Amino acid sequence: MTAPANVRTRRSALNFGTGVLLSAVSVALAFVATPLILRWLGTERFGALRAAGDWLGHLSILELGLGGALAPLLALAVGRGELPAVRHTMAEGIRAYALVSGATLVAGFLLTLAMTRLVPVGAALAPDLRRACLIGLIGLLMYPLLPFRSLVEGSQRSYVLNLLLLVQNLVITGGAVLLAWRGWGITGQFLALVAGQVVFHALLARDGLARFPGLLRAAVREPRDAQARREIRRLNVPTFVFNLCGRVGLLTDNIILALLLGPAKVVPLFLTQRLLALAQVQLAGVGNASWAALAELHALDRRDVFNARLLELTRLVAALSIATVVPIAAYNHHFVARWVGDGHFGGDLVTAVAAVNAYLVPLLSLWGWCFGGTGQVGVLVPVAVVGAALNLAASVIFTRWLGIAGPLLGTLVALLTTSAWYLPRQLRRSFGTELGALLRAVMMPLAWSAPVAAALVWVARAHEPPGWPALGAEMVGSALLLLAVWWLVVLSPADRAGYRARARVVVPRASGP
Q: Which sequence spans correspond to the domains of the chain?
């Protein structure tokens, strides 16, 4: 029961479109909420909140790669219409996550006992920090429902996930602002976080049970399925190692700064790269929206179509990254100064390195999904281990040498010396992807955008937009200009016709009888 090409295209576009909506709302919520929370919490509490959140975020590594193992198995079973396989895989996944939840709660409690040493704060803030972390552990009780997320993603229905994440963001942000205003400190922020997690997982499970009734009952009552267990174990160990290494880059920046320079230094790093980090997540959403469709093409052994779509997606991600990252980097100082005050701007070096990372990470994420989505994540483990070690060591060295830009520089060095060359080479070996075509897809946007980008940076530095409307208009206008150059200069007439045809598939015109 494979999906036709137009259905794959429509689902991928819907996944990406709802991801854009999620990002836009997230930016708007953060734009309004962050200054308020920062004002009501204070710099030290806010920095401690970010660092403690990253420490607790590391607990997710104890899920042992189950999510990455379940997603490709469910994608294959759903794509082939093998409903018994979906049922057995989900049942084994729920059972496995129930065990993980108990082990993670124990680890979380031990981590909470040590939190005031890991995040050094004044004696007056220590009780608030410990209490907040204990409340944060409640979210770990939601772990047995995590397979429903893999089910949604494997069904090419990430648009459902994005809409539920939107609801979660609204609950968390609303609760965080209200409780900060009421003086609940770090404890209130974690209460809001847990409330959002409970709502999200409840709605996610409801969606999965509506489409596949009886999954929870099967996990409790039906006998274990040896084949499903073997398939999960085959993938979860390499996925666990890969995810563990990835978290060194994602969740150690604030921790390193808090340990080496103090929690207060986390604030300018977080605020200065906030827009670029949000853009990076959204641009990586192209791969998140498309991996299940690519996995289906691979399962059908349609290598030529797989590579054509991969190159097309690479060109699209590169172009969108340039059009998004350049305006943000050019106007970032003006944005941060007007948003939270010039004293919280981390400097041009932080902006520049975060911008380069925001261009590279979505491309590498897209290429990485080709392996994770097809059950071949094991080939990425060696380079992930080396990259994580380089990232951690370089981040510490650069932080001691250059200050708050250090963790971002560590990430950049690790990406350039490992994944940036290894992934293309492995794509050629595993899928027959042409390296020259892949390189052109990445470099062409950089070539055509360089003169325009330089002009935009000069304009942004030459004057200060007089208010929010002017700042927003200049940033949006810059992005549209870059996209127009890409559309009119870089794309061939055939490329433009192809994009128009895909747009008609996504939004079909009304037709007569």
A: 8-245, 252-507
Residue 260's nearest CA partner among 405, 53, 45, 49 is 405
Enclosing H/E stretch for 1: none
- The SS3 of residue 411 is helix
pLDDT beyond 70 at 509: no
Q: What percent of the chain has pLDDT over 90?
A: 35
Structure confidence at residue 328 (pLDDT): 94
From CA 37, how far away is CA 46, in angstroms rounded? 8
Sign of CA dihedral 359, 412, 350, 243: positive
Calpha distance 350→411 (Å, rounded): 12
Q: Are the CB atoms for 258 and 46 separated by under 8 Å?
A: no
Give me the mean pLDDT over the 468-497 stretch: 89
Mind listing the pLDDT tens digit for each residue in 13-52? 777 778 778 878 887 888 889 889 999 998 889 888 988 8
Please count the residues of the chain.
Answer: 513
Task: Give the contacts of 28 (CB within 8 A, at least 6 positions apart).
Answer: none
Short-list 165, 137, 153, CA closest to 62: 137
DSSP 346: -
At residue 403, the 3 state secondary structure works out as coil
> Is the pLDDT confidence value at 513 over 50?
no
Q: How many CA atoms lie within 13 A of 322 on its CB side?
A: 27
Q: What is the pLDDT of residue 13?
A: 73
In this structure, are residues 44 and 264 in contact, taking their beta carbons and an 8 Å threshold?
Answer: yes
Q: What is the pLDDT of residue 499?
A: 79
Share of the chain above pLDDT 70, in %: 94
HSE, side-chain direction, 13 A CA sphere, residue 229: 7
pLDDT digits (tens, 9 = 90+) for 234-243: 767 787 777 7
- Provide, for the chain, the percentages of residues in helix, strand and coil under a 3-state DSSP scheme, each rounded to the nearest 5: 85, 0, 15
Q: Which of 431, 419, 329 is nearest to 374 (CA)?
A: 431
Q: How far is CA 293 from CA 65, 153, 365, 442, in A?
A: 21, 10, 15, 22
**Which of 12, 476, 22 lies closest to 290 in space, CA to CA?**
12
**How far is it, in rounded angstroms, from Cα 218 to Cα 116?**
42
Nearest Cα residue to 456 out of 482, 487, 489, 488? 482
Do the beta carbons of residue 314 and residue 442 sit within 8 Å? yes
Single out the residue of 285, 296, 283, 316 nearest to residue 156, CA to CA: 296
Q: Are 258 and 54 in contact (CB under 8 A)?
A: no
Q: Give pLDDT tens digits for 403-418.
A: 889 999 999 999 999 9
How does the average pLDDT of the chain come out, rounded?
85
